[in-house]
Amino acid sequence: MGLARRDFVKLAAGACALPLVGPAFAQLAPNPPNIRPPSPAERGAMARLARAFMDKYDVPALSFAIGYAGAIVHQDALGLADRERNEAVTPRHLFRIASVSKMITSVTIFRLIEENRVKLSDRVFGPGAILGTDYGQPPYSAGIDQITLEHLLTHTAGGWSNDNRDPMFTHPRMDHAQLIAWTLANRPLDRPPGQRYAYSNFGYCVVGRIIEKLTGQPYADYVRTEVLGRCGVSDMSIAGNTRDQRQAGEVAYYSQGENPYDMNVRRMDSHGGWIATPADLVQFLMHVDGYARPANILRPRTIQTMTTAPTVSPDYAKGFCVNKSDNWWHNGSLPGTSTIAVRTHGGFCWAAFTNTRRGNSNMDGDLDELNWNMARQVGEWRVA
After folding, report:
1. pTM > 0.85
2. Separation of alpha carbons 154 and 148, rounded Å
3. Mind listing the pLDDT tens digit for each residue in 238-259?
4. How far is residue 159 from each of residues 82, 95, 127, 167, 268, measured CA to CA in Å?
């Protein structure tokens, strides 16, 4: 499959790179401790901004949620979840979230790190490594047996990037085990591990298998119980591949020159497979945001490690894009889907999902900017 189908993330211009503030590595008290919801006039101003974005990019449905200090302070949904049925979208509709899924996978592996079940420095492939020889037999091509868990989380494993040879968009009939074994046997690394950043969906697919190896449970089952459930999220699941395989309450996805139902999305589970509402993602983010309310499901030092980028990639930490303003985020993009979820340095968390995307455009950047501009409609929120 070609570049139009890749799942990608923009680093340099994401999450509104704003003036520098100090890093929030300790658990911070929200300041102010709480905020009011937007007034009817302010909600109307937000909706007008959203409608303008939808008109610009021919978006059938847009859904978003904004949280602060453990509470969803505003959510809205505009447009049609299903054009053919004239079904209006609601805040409870589920969307494919694409690469926003990587945040969830990273938090899950860091819970296992806290439990001393794995270390970032642990090797992944080969005798004595986390996955051992579960996927193909050594000798591997040069460097593969030197890849660590940290390399996978930071996209510095040395290969398997999301170019037009992205393994996750090839051999759609292979399951995880078959695809990983095939890739190890047929796709040598481009460079030694640890030297350079190259965004890799395949790397996060492997992290999902590490979670399964360590827990003895299917990836999605463990994540739902041990991560999402602890965040108060109960209705997320892995997407199906076809229109008929949509979950109850899931939107339909619409093409702008590419087929949203011609991918093995289910196989993308740990790098791009989850479906959710924006409020689900906001609840998740508020439980790992470094703020004292609500109680986080990770320790402050763990969150610091998770959101600290390596020197070879200052804009990407471990499942989270980061900037010097101490904003953390991830966007997602698949045929039929454009998404973003953000934790801001001012204590807000928000997420916005659509059921289409337009390739070769600034839709992702504009969706990011839209969220900041909507939040700024409430002057008292002081969104910088």
Report:
1. yes
2. 10
3. 999 999 999 999 999 999 999 9
4. 39, 30, 21, 10, 18
